Each structure stands twice: as structure tokens, then as C-alpha cells.
Amino acid sequence: MVPDQLREWHAAELQALNAQFAGRPPEDLLIWAAEQFSGCAALTCSFGGTAGMVLLDIVARHDLPIAIVFLDTDLLFPETYRLAEAAARHYGITVERRRPALSIVEQEARHGPALYDRDPDQCCGLRKVVPLAEALRPYDAWISGIRRDQTAQRASTELLQWSAKHGLLKLSPLATWSEREVWSYITAHAVPYNPLLDQGYPSLGCAPCTLPTGATDGRGGRWSGFAKTECGIHT
């Protein structure tokens, strides 16, 4: 049998799996992933949004052998760092913290100060896209909290998709959930979440690129002044 990391999951397989898990709770897909990939699946959690915290809670509740990867850009809110530490203690888990190759000082020396203000795409590439690619190399499956209702670009998200970019299976167990369903789960299970979400921030990323808006748009307040709604890790 060809190891999963050496083969591509083809359209027919994915179509069958998407049909199999359609309408089922995200727990079922996460348990399947844990069994299918035997310790070679990773959940990326930003500790900024709510969906990632829901998935983290499910993984911890079921004691699933799924790694938790935290992309630390060195530019996140203090509340985000505190939540990552608090969640690790709360759930008794290890969070794999991945940082960019360049420190902020080194990046400024090479690319000039405040790159996020001048070229946020390049900054996201250096501080999120490249570190993610490196973090995912040991894994055969990537689990993400993205949902169809967040942006037009995410509207076609499937529960399972092949990521040609990373050469692995990408799972989005909450793809069909609404914001209301996510918050209902958080309330019902007392899931810890970033307190800034109660302070007018509909979405949280790096501190210099995120503003409180009070808007209902799931990506509101991100990269104000730019025609940008994605950091690049999901595109």
C-alpha cells in the first residue's frame, strides 16, 4: 500500500467521503482523521477565532492523536498569546508553536520597517504562509476551522479537499456551520475564547492589521485600506 503522504487523494475518493460525512457532527470527521492518519494529522489553531477553539475542544475531549499547530507571527495580540497558554493548561495539551525564520528586527533590516503597512501580502507570506508550509511537512492531513459563511472565497469549501499546495488532505470539519452554531457550541461546552471578540473585533489576526469594527462580517477589520481578506494560507 502506498503511504498517504506519497499519494494524492483523487476526486472520486473525496466526493465519496464528502457525501459520507455530510450532515454528520464534526466529531465524526475528526475521529475518522485521527484513525486514518495515525498521529500524522495537524489542527492549525490561531487562538484568535472561535472555530479553531471548537475544533481544539473536540480534539481534546476525545483525546485524539492530532497535533495542535499555532502560527506565531510575533505580531499577535497579547490576548492571543495568553489564550494559547491558557488553553494548553486547560486541556493539558502541547501546542506546537511555529514562528517565521526572520525576527521582526531581521525582517525590517531586510525589507524595511512596517512591511505590513506597505505590502501586507509579502508580510503575510513571510510570517504565515511560509511557516505554515514548513509546519505541515511532517503531516499527511491538515485540519482547519474555516467555514463557507466567512468570505466569498471560502464559500466553496468542502469538508475534505486535496491541497495541491501542501500535498496533503485538508479537512474543514466546520465548513457548513454558521457563526451562530459555533457560538452555541462554545457556550454549551464553556470553551475558552479570545476576549477581544467581545470588544468589537469580529476577526483577529496580527495586531497591526486588525481593527475593532463591531461589524458582522467575519473578516471585518482585517487589513483596513487594502482589498485583502485572506492572509494566503487558505488560497
Short summary:
This protein is of the alpha/beta class.
Describe the protein.
The protein has helices at 11-21, 26-37, 51-61, 78-91, 104-111, 115-118, 120-136, 179-189, and strands at 41-44, 67-71, 95-98, 141-143, 160-163, 168-171. The protein is built from eight helices and six strands; from the N terminus they run ααβαβαβαααβββα. It has one domain: Rossmann fold (3-Layer(aba) Sandwich), CATH 3.40.50. α3 crosses α8 (179-189). α3 (51-61) links the parallel β1 and β2 (67-71). Strands 3-2-1-4-6-5 form a six-stranded mixed β-sheet, with helices on both faces. With 235 residues, the protein is of the alpha/beta class. Mean pLDDT is 90; it is low at 1-5.
Largest sheet: 6 strands, mixed
Number of helices: 8
Structural class per helix/strand content? alpha/beta
Computed CA radius of gyration, to the nearest angstrom? 17 Å
Would you identify the CATH H-level superfamily?
HUPs
Gross morphology is: globular
Please tell me the total number of domains.
Answer: 1
Q: What is the averaged pLDDT score? A: 90
Kindly report the CATH topology. Rossmann fold
Helix and strand sequence = HHEHEHEHHHEEEH
Strand content: 5-15%
Strand order across the biggest sheet? 3-2-1-4-6-5
Q: What's the count of strands?
A: 6
In the CATH scheme, the class would be Alpha Beta
Could you say what the CATH architecture is? Answer: 3-Layer(aba) Sandwich
Helical content (DSSP H or I, runs of 4+) = 25-40%
The N- to C-terminal Cα distance equals 31 Å
Low-confidence stretches: 1-5
